[in-house]
């Protein structure tokens, strides 16, 4: 926002910030009121005309797993923050970023394995 | 019961050999696998549904070559992981169970019915619409079990399913394994879980060192620990 203000003046900057706020609020409302299965079906219907180029099922799954991963990554960050505090390395950005990335990658590997085991090997 | 055959299986991760020329035929109803960390047990069970493909040798399930018919084999073999968090794909409990029934040619009503039944059986009905990540560790493992069993596999393979659970929850999961009509293959460090199993196999350094009745194989494992 400060950059916007500098480049385009305060009014457009405030407008932009307002738009972002509304978008975030709408997204929260959406996730509160819509099941992911409904989203998957919506994507399938939406993408049907493009079926030759886009695999609607896969796009829907991508959205579902993205939503599922938000609490998972949040948990990893919480645990790493706790570990950082326990070891007295507070404030070090490196001590946060490195373990979070490494553990997220491990989790991604494990989720991929589970997806295959659950029959999504296409 | 299904017949699972390992024939001359070897596998390495980089320089480390995890399985050495292992041959094994599994036909019993309840089979336990024990061994130290890094002994090769997890790799062994991952071969059964093709999560790992061996460097040498073959694995078959009811005569189906796992390397060639992975999809068909995975429909017959359900897999339970140690950490249910990695196994839960969908954001809510009922959606995750229903996810196992995708692409099976079932109607929406059938999927809903079977999902409800599975949640009922595992005492998760009250949580059907809850976010999966809010469940307790024990409930998450129950959800993982429900999501696997709703697909009606013939064989259930579990890799340390109780390692992250407290005593009460691990007993609950153990009881559920005992009550299952499916063929069950469990890797575990919880030796009392295997007491009434039909066969226990002890793996050390990628090879079978004991194989037989639970008492015999577990004694051999305890002797290795000493």
UniProtKB/TrEMBL annotation, chain A:
Pfam families: CbiQ. It comes from the Bacteria. It is found in: Membrane. Keywords: Membrane, Transmembrane, Transmembrane helix. It is a multi-pass membrane protein. This is Energy-coupling factor transporter transmembrane protein EcfT. It comes from Cryobacterium breve.
TrEMBL record, chain B:
This is Energy-coupling factor ABC transporter ATP-binding protein. Keywords: ATP-binding, Nucleotide-binding, Transport. Belongs to the ABC transporter superfamily. InterPro entries: AAA+_ATPase (IPR003593), ABC_transporter-like_ATP-bd (IPR003439), ABC_transporter-like_CS (IPR017871), ABC_transpr_CbiO/EcfA_su (IPR015856), ECF_ABC_transporter_ATP-bd (IPR050095), P-loop_NTPase (IPR027417). It comes from Cryobacterium breve. GO terms for molecular function: ATP binding. Residues 4-226 form the ABC transporter domain.
């Amino acid at each position: 926002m400060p950059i916007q203000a500098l480049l385009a003046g305060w009014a457009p900057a405030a407008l932009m910030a307002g738009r972002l706020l509304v978008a975030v609020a709408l997204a929260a409302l959406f996730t509160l009121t819509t099941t992911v299965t409904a989203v998957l079906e919506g994507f399938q219907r939406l993408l049907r005309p493009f079926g030759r180029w886009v695999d609607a099922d896969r796009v829907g799954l991508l959205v579902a797993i993205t939503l599922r991963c938000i609490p998972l990554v949040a948990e990893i960050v919480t645990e790493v923050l706790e570990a950082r505090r326990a070891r007295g390395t507070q404030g070090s950005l490196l001590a946060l970023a490195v373990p979070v990335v490494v553990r997220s990658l491990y989790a991604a590997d494990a989720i991929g394995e589970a997806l295959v085991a659950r029959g999504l090997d296409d | 019961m299904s017949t699972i055959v390992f024939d001359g299986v070897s596998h390495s991760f980089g320089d480390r050999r995890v399985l050495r020329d292992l041959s094994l035929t599994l036909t019993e109803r309840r089979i336990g696998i024990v061994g130290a960390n890094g002994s090769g047990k997890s790799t062994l069970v991952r071969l059964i549904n093709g999560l790992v493909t061996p460097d040498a040798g073959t694995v078959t399930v009811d005569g189906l070559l796992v390397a060639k018919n992975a999809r068909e084999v995975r429909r017959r073999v359900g897999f339970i992981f140690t950490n249910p968090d990695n196994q839960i794909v969908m954001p809510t409990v009922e959606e995750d169970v229903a996810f196992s029934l995708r692409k099976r040619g079932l109607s929406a009503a059938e999927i809903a019915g079977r999902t409800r039944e599975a949640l009922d059986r595992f005492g998760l009905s009250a949580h059907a619409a809850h976010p999966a990540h809010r469940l307790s560790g024990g409930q998450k493992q129950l959800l993982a079990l429900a999501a696997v069993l709703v697909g009606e596999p013939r064989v259930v393979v579990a890799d340390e399913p109780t390692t992250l659970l407290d005593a009460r929850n691990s007993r609950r999961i153990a009881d559920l394994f005992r009550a299952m009509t499916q063929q069950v293959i469990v890797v575990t460090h919880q030796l009392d879980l295997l007491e009434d199993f039909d066969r226990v196999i002890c793996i050390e350094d990628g090879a079978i060192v004991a194989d037989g009745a639970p008492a015999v194989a577990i004694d051999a494992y305890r002797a290795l620990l000493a």
